[in-house]
From TrEMBL:
Protein name per Swiss-Prot or TrEMBL: AAA family ATPase
Family, per entry: Belongs to the MoxR family.
Coiled coil: none
PANTHER family on file: MAGNESIUM-CHELATASE SUBUNIT CHLD, MOXR FAMILY PROTEIN
A GO molecular-function descriptor: ATP binding
Lineage, highest ranks first: Bacteria, Pseudomonadati, Pseudomonadota, Gammaproteobacteria, OMG group
Source organism superkingdom: Bacteria
Domain ChlI/MoxR AAA lid positions: 247-311
């Protein structure tokens, strides 16, 4: 069985376990294929924890959940030195960040120093302690969550730190049919009827798929489309007065890079060896959403990033 088919089978199985959240499942697989991290925003109880924990079990990955609270310390994430009395030396005790898949639950509950400790590990793929550095695993993904309902006692992530996330995903409640399926699945699991296990997918297969993404065919037209979307966010006055009024700062080069690799991952999961403008459009909201800095006028009139991205798609030609 090809690596692509294995990933498609994994996606189909995950959607039987994470019911009513196909977009979250799809974005998780895009992030892990693109070797990036994602920020997920949604109300409590929408299977965010279950999604990444289930994915970890399916790809032979170690999972750890970190609950962010105001009293959390950076060393609670990265680890610290402990004294070994028997040898009279200090030994570095690795923290939970050294697992393969990390759930940073309610990341905006912790102060800036803790947030930056996590984000540094995400960006550099290593932990520095004193004069030593410790590499993180080759398979390393952080899924951070934010609760959009409660904002009291939170520490919003600065825009420069948000830029470290490959994707910013918004999820909503499941529909009525999915809600019934969730009830049935919970009852089956309570009775010990967990159904078929996940399809086998080794980390080596995943790493091979990542290399395949980079060799997928992308025409100069699609590549130019990606660049033009980014440039339009930086030079909005060339695409209409509304955009010029709504955008304070455009998308960084990380947005261009992220849009390229996520479009490739989307095409790969769709079973194609080439990237189309539709692939770009299918992921652009999640790639750009947290990188666009809206103006005061946009915020005052209730114009959000998604509306601005919709307008960019209308104004920027695909060819």
């Amino acid at each position: 069985m090809s690596e692509r088919q294995q990933l498609q089978d994994l996606r189909a199985w995950l959607e039987t376990q994470i019911i009513g959240q196909p977009d979250l499942v799809h974005r998780l697989l895009i992030a892990i294929l693109a070797d990036g991290h994602l920020l997920v925003e949604g109300a409590p109880g929408l299977a965010k924890t279950k999604a990444i924990k289930t994915l970890a079990g399916a790809i032979e990955g170690e999972f750890h959940r970190i609950q962010f609270t105001p009293d959390l310390l950076p060393t609670d994430i990265t680890g610290t030195e402990i004294y070994r009395a028997e040898s009279g030396t200090f030994e570095f005790q690795k923290g939970p960040i050294f697992q393969n898949l990390i759930l940073a639950d309610e990341i905006n509950r912790a102060p800036a120093k803790v947030q930056s400790a996590l984000l540094e590990s995400m960006a550099e793929r290593q932990v520095s302690f004193g004069r030593r550095t410790f590499p993180l695993p080759d398979l390393f993904l952080v899924m951070a969550t934010q609760n959009p309902i409660e904002q009291e006692g939170t520490y919003p992530l600065p825009e420069a730190q948000l830029d470290r996330f490959l994707l910013h995903v918004n999820i909503d409640y499941p529909d009525a049919s999915s809600e019934r399926s969730i009830l049935q699945l919970v009852r089956q699991e309570a009775q010990g009827n967990e159904g078929a296990g996940p399809p086998a997918l080794s980390q080596e297969t995943l790493f091979s798929a990542r290399k395949t993404l980079l060799t997928m065919h992308m025409t100069p037209i699609v590549e130019e489309y990606i660049v033009n979307l980014t440039l339009a966010s930086r030079q909005p006055d060339a695409y209409g007065d509304d955009l010029a009024k709504w955008i304070e700062y455009g998308v960084s080069p990380r947005g261009t890079i992220g849009l390229d690799i996520c479009a490739r991952a989307s095409a790969y999961l769709a079973g194609r060896d080439f990237v189309t403008p539709d692939d770009v459009q299918s992921v652009v909201h999640d790639v750009f959403r947290h990188r666009l800095i809206t103006s005061f006028e946009a915020e005052a009139t209730g114009i959000g990033a998604d509306t601005i991205i919709d307008r960019l798609l209308e104004q920027v030609a695909t060819a």
